[in-house]
Specification:
With 489 residues, this protein is α+β, with helices and mostly antiparallel strands. It is built from 11 helices and 12 strands. It binds adenosine-5'-diphosphate.
Length: 489
């Protein structure tokens, strides 16, 4: 059973090949017309030959019918002349002639078998009524004809045009063997021609089907070369529009992969660099403590505090990196629930107010209406926290941060504006890049990792939302976040 399924699958696999399909299409397109043509021609010939033979025999029989009347054969079938004529006719057509009189009696049968018998068949009755028929029996190889024997009846009709009456019927069988013979010869010849055509078409189908799919094999080969690493060039197979499309799509994919690879390498080198910086600082601090013999207690404490700060920084970078990696896991990681956004923002601000207070920054929350939305609470908290934290971090003394929450029937909008240092317009597109900082040393000083906005943007995109920034250097910045109220999976 299992074997059978495998066998069928194997066969189907064979038919899934494009060259095999082209081969069969050419084969069918080439051979079917030639078969139809052969049959058409033969059938046409047969019909034509039967018609010719029928009308030829019919003419002869009509002449003979006249002779029969003239010789009064129906009354006295002993006429030598007519009998000779009848025999000649039946020899000529390799057939049989029977003459039937008005009483349906067979007065002459050239085979001499049925003479004197009565013949009441449908064809004979029809013929007496004036309808002569001809019937071709291909299986038994003969054509059957009925010919009326008519004589003029002076008593009927008018004088100028006396009526003719059917006084007898000639029932004739004409052999169609000669037609069959010609047909057989023709058929044999046509078959030979057909076989030659068949072989030629198979050959042509094999060559053409292989040639037609060759460009696709070239595409595969070119892609394999890239895969094996022989080349990282753009590939080109322009034989067909279709192969060009495939190759174009592949080249685009290749470019994207190169960009991804570059950005991955850059990310790894950035990560290493960022992680190394606090370690280097710690090493310098520890080394200087070791090198100095008698370290005063205060200096020792100060250095240890610095080391602790660097450890804290290292920890923050790792935490941010982990958040970012988790975000990259896409939709699968979403934990959607209906969240009171007003409550969520209040909670975030409550947590961040102590930091703001330290920097003498006032944090204000304004809500136009109560908002509930389907979001991942943890990710949304992370996104909003990062934005508010930045607004506090990159602010001025006695500055302010304002959070404005509004919603329509589809989205809720959060505007986080500050009176801070602002962002140069040229950097608007870069601030979401991992490890990007407008002022590296300033950001490091205030504990930035350069990952905050990357995390924020990922979290927002996972909610199918958007983030926009507007800023005037030295005056302040405003981030606008728009999130759908209902989560679209
Ligand atoms: P960081 O951890 O350094 O804050 P982010 O990814 O959160 O990293 O931000 C990237 C950079 O964008 C920051 O280093 C800072 O230069 C700039 N930035 C972000 N938010 C603000 C803001 N509210 N005001 C001014 N600059 C900002």
């Amino acid at each position: 059973m299992n074997l059978k399924v495998k066998e069928i699958l194997g066969r189907l696999h064979f038919f899934r090949s494009l060259s095999v399909r082209i081969f069969f299409i050419i084969l069918i397109v080439g051979i079917v017309p030639s078969i139809i043509l052969r049959h058409g021609i033969l059938m046409n010939y047969e019909e034509h030959a039967v018609n010719v033979k029928t009308s030829e025999a019919q003419n002869q029989l009509k002449i003979l019918a006249n002779h029969l009347i003239n010789y009064g054969y129906l009354q006295d079938p002993s006429s030598e002349v007519i009998n000779a004529e009848l025999n000649q006719l039946s020899n000529l057509y390799d057939g049989r002639v029977m003459i039937i009189d008005r009483n349906f009696k067979i007065i002459k049968d050239t085979y001499g078998i049925s003479q004197g018998k009565t013949m009441i068949s449908e064809e004979v009755i029809q013929c007496f009524k004036g309808t002569s028929i001809s019937k071709y029996d291909a299986n038994n190889g003969y054509i059957e004809l009925t010919t009326p024997i008519t004589s003029v009846d002076l008593k009927m009709g008018d004088e100028a045009k006396p009526a003719s009456v059917v006084v007898g019927v000639m029932l004739t069988s004409v052999s169609s063997d000669s037609i069959r013979l010609t047909m057989d010869t023709l058929s044999r010849k046509a078959f030979v021609i057909e076989m030659i055509v068949f072989i030629l078409i198979i050959g042509m189908a094999m060559v053409v089907s292989r040639a037609l799919v060759k460009p696709f094999a070239r595409v595969t080969q070119a892609i394999n070369e890239v895969k094996e690493g022989y080349t990282d060039e753009q590939i080109s197979v322009s034989d067909y529009v279709e192969t060009e499309h495939i190759v174009d799509a592949f080249n685009q994919l290749l470019n994207r992969m190169k960009v991804l690879d570059d950005s991955r390498q850059e990310f790894v080198s950035n990560v290493s660099h960022e992680l190394k910086t606090p370690l280097t600082s710690m090493k310098v601090l520890a080394d200087s403590l070791i090198m100095q013999g008698d370290v005063p207690n205060e200096l020792y404490k100060e250095f240890m505090e610095d080391i602790a700060a660097e450890i804290e920084r290292e920890n923050k970078i790792i935490t941010d990196l982990l958040s970012l990696v988790k975000m990259d896991k896409k939709e699968a990681g979403m934990n959607i629930s209906v969240v009171d956004i007003n409550g969520l923002v209040e909670l975030i601000l409550k947590r961040l107010r102590p930091i703001a207070r330290k920097q003498d920054v006032e944090v204000v929350f304004e809500s136009i209406r109560p908002v509930t939305a389907e979001v991942d609470e943890v990710k949304m908290t992370l996104a909003i926290s990062n934005l508010v934290e930045n607004a506090i971090k990159y602010n001025k003394e006695h500055g302010w941060v304002k959070v404005l929450l509004d919603a329509d029937h589809q989205f809720f909008t959060l505007e986080i504006s500050d009176s801070g240092i602002g962002i140069p317009e040229a950097d608007f597109d870069h601030i979401y890049e991992r490890f990007f900082r407008v002022d590296k040393s300033h950001s490091r000083e205030i504990g930035g990792t350069g990952l905050g906005l990357a995390i924020t943007r990922n979290a927002i995109l996972m909610h199918r939302g958007s983030i926009k920034v507007s800023s005037i250097e030295g005056e302040g910045t405003c981030f606008t976040v728009k999130i759908p109220l209902t989560h679209l999976a």
